[in-house]
Amino acid sequence: MRASSKHLSKHRREQQIIAAADIVLREVGANNFTVDQVVERLEVAKGTIYKYYKSKDDILAEVSVNALKLLLDYFKIAVENQKDGLEATKAVIMACYQYYLSHPQYFELIVYMERPDFRSDVKSYTQASADLSNFVIEHVKCCQAKGTMKADLNPLYTNYVIWGSCMGIMNFIESKRVFIEQFEKIDRKELVKAYAETLVAGMAA
Amino acid sequence: MRASSKHLSKHRREQQIIAAADIVLREVGANNFTVDQVVERLEVAKGTIYKYYKSKDDILAEVSVNALKLLLDYFKIAVENQKDGLEATKAVIMACYQYYLSHPQYFELIVYMERPDFRSDVKSYTQASADLSNFVIEHVKCCQAKGTMKADLNPLYTNYVIWGSCMGIMNFIESKRVFIEQFEKIDRKELVKAYAETLVAGMAA
Amino acid sequence: MRASSKHLSKHRREQQIIAAADIVLREVGANNFTVDQVVERLEVAKGTIYKYYKSKDDILAEVSVNALKLLLDYFKIAVENQKDGLEATKAVIMACYQYYLSHPQYFELIVYMERPDFRSDVKSYTQASADLSNFVIEHVKCCQAKGTMKADLNPLYTNYVIWGSCMGIMNFIESKRVFIEQFEKIDRKELVKAYAETLVAGMAA
Amino acid sequence: MRASSKHLSKHRREQQIIAAADIVLREVGANNFTVDQVVERLEVAKGTIYKYYKSKDDILAEVSVNALKLLLDYFKIAVENQKDGLEATKAVIMACYQYYLSHPQYFELIVYMERPDFRSDVKSYTQASADLSNFVIEHVKCCQAKGTMKADLNPLYTNYVIWGSCMGIMNFIESKRVFIEQFEKIDRKELVKAYAETLVAGMAA
DNA sequence: TATGAATGAGTGTTCATTCAT
DNA sequence: AATGAATGAACACTCATTCAT
Question: Which residues make beta-bridge pairs with A149?
Fold first, then answer.
């Protein structure tokens, strides 16, 4: 009954499943994500999915690898386009913001994965996350070498300060209903810019 | 069959329900919070709860009022214990951290409440949130008046920069499983301190 | 706390309750009718209602007395406006139709009351129903006396044939979704007219 | 734990579910019909039912297809047993009555389905209903062709007059508790017969 | 290896009725 | 007599996971 796609290689199968899961995630978000929806988008049975991934959370962890890789791309582009180290740092923060605007469901996914009852040990996820950290760490070291950034900043910590707080502020600021009154008056891009400038000013040598 | 507590005053009953909901929230988190669990903790029937709160989300909104009020308390204490304005600002950030460590589920709750499909119009929630903002805004204005903080910082934005990014960074950094390797090596308190110092340095006049 | 209306006479209280129930019925229909809604409309507590009516169904039975009385009014007006006996009979059928259009919720109520699990022994309801029957029976006898209607028709049966089938046809015809295709093409008033003419033609002496 | 009947064909499973639903319907009526009751009667889990039918109303719509098909059978048998067209028409009305007596819950079901808040788009239901109409329409046309029925009767309207009013009168007359006094004295079969004769007399050419 | 039908404990929510005050 | 808070069994519907084929 199934089309041509029987007996694919293990790798192709996995790709296929994650591709479908990615589409579902982008459509409904992590909180409404169901395995059934993935199956609908896929020429593969539910049981088969569980042969490749032992739980729904495993699938989501795999999807989040895409999310992290994409964020790394945003970071790279931001840095490439800037000569000055501190400007590049600001650009990284703004890239975070752009990413958040363009891929809010990836955000939701990352938040979802941090729930204490989330269970998964996907190695590639850890790897993607390390790649991201390393990129920022190298950038920080580079700035310090050039003398534009305080030498006493711990690069690892600075890494987290940069993109952790950056993603955090966005998530928090988006809190729509909480601040309804002021919300209208706020230009979110300006806010992020103000944040970037303040933070980077604090890092400057 | 029920215990002694029949026919409490409306206020007492509400307190009772929210107290039980608060306990459940702290135990299982907002995402696993169920009305049934509240009932179990409470010598009250399910129907009774729905007489006082028209939905699960209403209950959670009410619980979050507690959460926000508590955070405000943390802020107040932090500021009171510091003479210097910038030190007080750092203290606010560290208070955020302490709060987050002590009440991680309140964090999850706030995130949960911002989901687009969350439904509730609890006025006291909006009020509590405004109180929090206003406190920080006043603090910023005060620092600016004293000349310790850059005069060109928009107090409203600075408010969000301070506690929004602050809560955000914690939420993000706590991402336990993501960074397993480095996680061991990280002293989270030091990290937040580094963050606070960098940010406040950027705000200094 | 309550306004002036404490300690009304039993009769006034009943009137008050039924009036509120009538409003609720017209607003939401018999199937969505709840005692709570009646209480909302009333300066009387729920417990009090149960002092006067032993069940929700009792209340509805009492409301339906209004419904039947109103239908009788429609019948009377129809007959009064016609000289000719058979024309008057047709007019009764058309009055049924008008009544149905103007008071669909009363219809729903009557249908609701016929469910086998409906429980109530409201005497006034039986009385109102008897009044309705008697009116039609007298009309039939009158027509027979004048020689316009077949003398061998049993007046009691003819009574039921007239208004029972009449209400039935309307209820059935309204079946909206069932006949979607043809429904557009049907002029319901014409249909009822055709029905009335056929039936009355069959009654003519 | 479950019995032998695992992994039936899709069709068999549907049959099984509808059969159980049909039994429940006949036992408790459409208004008290619950999915849980169907589950109890069935060696199948609740979730399984929802794999085959997406809502309770869908199940009921499917059951009502049976109900309508059965009524059509009653109609066919009635007509087949009569030579004379008008006698056959009377027979259709009496068949309605027999059907109603034998399957009162099917009646309740049809009424239930016409409630404005009923939701379902079961095509086979519409089809079954159209079959029923078409059968009567053809019968009317046939009578008109033979000259036994007034040529100016609109067959579509006459269709509704016949079985719509017919079902209606029964539903209404059966109103047991309403007319308690007279109810004893009434021979319902005679009443329907009187109705049939009157109506058919009105249709005769 | 792939399947996909089956599972069943849970979800939030409703409402007629009771009964202590 | 009047109250209205409390009850709790029902209800429709969901979905991650399993397992016989």
Answer: A204
